[in-house]
Amino acid sequence: MATYDENLLIRALPPDTARRLAEHLVILDTPSRMEIFQPGDTVSRVYFPLDSVISMTAPVSGSWGEVATVGQEGMVGLPTLFGTDMANMRCFVQIGGRTATAPANKLIELLKTDDALRSVLLRYAYAMFTQVGQSVVCNQRHSLSQRCARWLLMTHDRVPGDQFHLTHEYLAVMLGVRRAGVTVAAGNLQKAGLIRYKRGEIVITDRAGLEAESCECYRLVADVYDRLIGQVIDKS
User: Fold this and answer.
1) For residue 122, is it within any domain?
2) Is the whole model's pTM more than 0.85, yes or no?
3) pLDDT tens series, the chain, 236 aa
4) Shared domain check, 209 and 109
5) Cβ(230)–Cβ(11) under 8 Å?
6) Dist. CA 144–CA 88, nearest whole Å
7) Residue range(s) defining the domain that contains residue 168
8) Helices (DSSP H) in 91-194: which residue ranges?
9) Is the same domain home to 92 and 169?
10) Last residue of a domain, one of 64, 99, 115
């Protein structure tokens, strides 16, 4: 359990429930760009990131746009919680690292008899729906610079340390915009001294300043996770 409880969902479980889940978990090294699910795939396993970050994306105009980010606060494989085994989004590893995984059928068996597990995962699902809904409003109402700052903060929350690998092309996919727009937005954040960016490596240099640059959506979603899961997921 000393390793699995890096995931905040597992840490939020009562000890007996966490031990029962841990019996079915194994830890994988999940590299960046590793595919987890494609739309229509059978969800045969569930994933609990430890220090990796997984992106959930939906098709748009012949490309993909991110709808949610999942890191140590969450789980990938929510269809199992709602009685289906079909994925409806593309999920892939955004930031490589370690991920705990279990067979989906084992989780379903535990959910039938363990009220604590079901309660924690349902609260997480509700927080995830909040993140997705807030992202829709954010993409409609807020500037690219604000959205870029929000996304960098969300990623920063989910990785160890202040540095992570991310190309402009990748960030453009996550934000659903053209690469040129991301180059300008990231450049402005760097000029303001909030980040350093070179050859795909981003370093967060002024966390407070980046939060000030972001829209209110970042804090709204972080507070929901904190309230529902009972863990602080940001580095403020």
Assistant:
1) no
2) yes
3) 447 889 999 999 999 999 999 999 999 999 999 999 999 999 999 999 999 999 998 877 777 777 888 999 999 999 999 999 999 999 999 999 999 999 999 999 999 999 999 999 999 999 999 989 998 888 888 998 999 999 899 999 988 899 998 887 777 777 777 878 888 888 899 999 999 988 889 999 999 999 999 999 999 999 998 888 875 454 55
4) no
5) no
6) 27
7) 139-229
8) 104-113, 115-141, 144-157, 168-175, 179-191
9) no
10) 115
